[in-house]
Specification:
By secondary structure, this protein is an alpha+beta fold. The chain is built from seven helices and 14 strands. It is found in: Cytoplasm.
Length: about 280
């Protein structure tokens, strides 16, 4: 970038004028073209990589959020090791499903939105407030969603006021719902949700909850071609994160690989997975 000899070195007035604590509102007012939903799409069908299955489950000490690693474009595997689960801040996380590029960009904006609010207000948003802000961002992408470039995340975090983990799901219009116990989104969600429905208990330990979500992702990959299962040859394993009163933590590669290997080895004996009691 070339230097401007006439520049005073000061920031533009827009950056120095008091305003909303929302970075999203600031960007919409001064550079709306930088928002994902503010860009013009080329005519015709747009082919873009899509991320798939995200799952979450609560346990008495927090919440687990996990995702597989596959991105698809039509009937092709676009990427085998995409990351779909990101920290939103110290006590919350987002798992993305839908158009991968837009989803990652939306997550970065969401992270910046929460950081901006905290710096301006001197306090963090409540978990409910964070969920509402994400809803607004998804609604702003509705135009692109109607053209096939939808982003449908899963949001989870530790609610410091209620002292428990909570999960929020969304639709393409920004509609928000709180999920109780467990949730899933993405192309393999119907199979993952069915798996968790039979195995979930309210008294799970953290270890059991992380095993549950890996079992659910395995079942999703078993029936949905867009969901990737553990890849032992390439050492690609699901991303598993845990959020408790101590904050966000992502399982290390050794932890996630050990968990995935245990599930896979058990499946050699029971290909359809663990059985739930009939009564």
């Amino acid at each position: 970038m070339e230097a401007n000899p006439r520049s005073t070195g000061r920031l533009p007035a827009a950056f120095l004028t008091p305003g909303s604590s929302s970075f999203l509102d600031f960007l919409a007012a001064h550079s709306p073209e930088m928002l994902p939903g503010g860009r013009k799409l080329p005519e015709g069908v747009v082919e873009a990589p899509h991320g798939t299955t995200i799952v979450a489950a609560t346990f008495p000490g927090g919440v687990v959020l996990a995702g597989d690693r596959r991105a698809t474009m039509g009937n092709m595997i676009a990427q085998r090791d995409i990351e779909k689960v990101f920290p939103a801040d110290e006590f919350s996380a987002v798992g993305i499903a839908g158009t991968a590029g837009l989803a990652v960009e939306m997550v970065k904006l969401f992270q910046l939105e929460l950081e901006h609010f905290e710096k301006v207000e001197g306090a963090t948003l409540s978990l409910e407030g964070k969920a509402n802000r994400l809803s607004t961002m998804i609604r702003g992408n509705l135009g692109m969603a109607m053209q096939g470039l939808a982003v449908v995340p899963l949001f989870a975090g530790w609610d410091e006021g209620k002292e428990k983990g909570r999960i929020f799901s969304y639709d393409v219009t920004g509609g928000r719902s709180e999920e109780h116990g467990f949730a899933a989104t993405g192309s393999g969600s119907i199979f993952a949700r069915g798996s968790m429905k039979k195995l979930y208990r309210a008294d799970l330990t953290e270890q059991q909850a992380t095993t549950l979500v890996v079992q659910a992702l395995y079942d999703a990959a078993d029936d949905d071609s867009a969901t990737g299962g553990p890849d032992m040859a390439r050492r690609i394993f699901p991303i598993v994160t845990v959020i408790t009163e101590e904050g966000f933590r992502r399982l290390s590669e050794d932890e996630s690989s050990g968990l995935a290997r245990s599930v896979t080895e058990r499946r050699l004996e029971q290909p359809d997975g663990p059985r739930a009691a009939l009564l």
